[in-house]
Amino acid sequence: MYKIITRLIPKRIRKNIYDTLDFARIKGNKQNILGMFLSLNLVLSIMIATFFSSLFNINPFLGFFISLAALNTGSYFFFSLKADATAKFIESILPDALQLMSSNLRAGLTTDKALLLSARPEFGVLSEEIANIGKKIALGEDIGKAMVEMTEKFKSEKLNKTFSLIITGLRSGGELTNLLDQTAEGLRQERFLEEKIRTNVLMYSIFIFIAMGVGAPVLFGLSSFLIGVIEKNLVSIDLPKVASIPITFSKISISPSFVLTFAIISLITTSIMGSLVLGLIQKGKERYGLKFIPILLVLTLGIFFLTRFLIGSLLGGIFGLK
Questions:
Q1: What percentage of residues in the chain have a pLDDT greater than 70?
Q2: What is the pLDDT at residue 22?
Q3: Which of 50, 183, 255, 265 is deepest in the core (most CB within 10 A)?
Q4: For range 290-309, the mean pLDDT
Q5: Per-residue pLDDT for 235 more than 70?
Q6: Mapped to the 3 state alphabet, what secondary structure does 245-305 carry?
Q7: How far apart are CA 91 and CA 191, in angstroms?
Q8: How far apart are the first and last CA of the chain?
Q9: Which of 47, 74, 73 has its CA nearest to residue 60?
């Protein structure tokens, strides 16, 4: 069954998903994993469409396709973020691994033994790949080729550039120990600069988060209440008919329900787009902001309805809205 379901996906997209599963170090039959998620998303989409159709009178077919697209996109980003997390972990321990390789080589060990002894458990998935490189070198494979094959298993541009630099240095006649030491030192300096930059942009992230999570829902709550006040009281004002004052009051065409719907849609859209902006500012990629979406949605909508409730409780009686 899973085989039939996965074949509904275009081959190019299916290959991209399989590569992402590999980068995320998801073990098992990739076709079965993909088919299982697609089947689960299909069932959930039917349930979500049925729920919103009965509650909000939304077209069930439209709700189904929107839910299915959202769930499938969310599943893909889940695996993509897991792949990025694996790559980030490797990048964080790579300087220590390179330094350990260099130390083993300086101790007089051969290249293959130095790599095998550098495969420490604390290096996680990188430990397995370092050991594989050592085994390939022991069997006579070129060290450059073994390193290239290792980098292809991870979704890390920094890892690719690091080993490309080492391979280029080796082919130019450089000494492996010096190359490893210099590369490790360069990676540490780069990490220090990244942390410094991240600290500098933290204030921008806090400002954006407060503006979206607190400022926007409070303002929308106040404005939606104000529309209700105007709609109920302003049209009841009876001005004396004076020819010299061309002022008239007619029925407001914008209803409070429309303003409420507009405010909710705006807050949801702002939360989603703002989360992507936060991810871009903090990590350099929009998808890292996906984790902020649920937090901002709950926060903005909660503050919005809380603001309306508090204002209605305090001022509703004055304006006759209770």
A1: 89
A2: 86
A3: 183
A4: 88
A5: no
A6: CCCCCCCCCCCHHHHHHHHHHHHHHHHHHHHHHHHHHHHCCHHHHHHHHHHHHHHHHHHHH
A7: 9
A8: 57
A9: 47
CA dihedral over 69, 73, 74, 79, signed as positive or negative: positive
CA-wise closest residue to 23 among 90, 73, 82: 82
For 242-287, how does the pLDDT look when each residue is reduced to its tens digit (9 = 90+)? 545 555 555 556 677 778 888 888 898 998 888 888 888 877 778 7
Give the distance from CA 84 to its chain's centroid.
10
Dihedrals phi, psi of 319, to nearest 5 degrees: -95, 5
Four-residue CA torsion sign, 8, 13, 17, 19: positive
Return d(Cα 102, Cα 95) in angstroms, integer: 11
Asked whether the whole model's pTM tops 0.90, one would answer no
At 117, the pLDDT band (50, 70, 90 cuts) reads: confident
Residue spans of alpha helices (H) in the chain: 2-6, 11-23, 30-56, 60-106, 111-117, 125-138, 143-151, 157-171, 176-200, 202-210, 216-233, 256-283, 292-315
- The answer to whether residue 106 scores a pLDDT higher than 80 is yes
Q: Which amino acid is at 73?
A: T
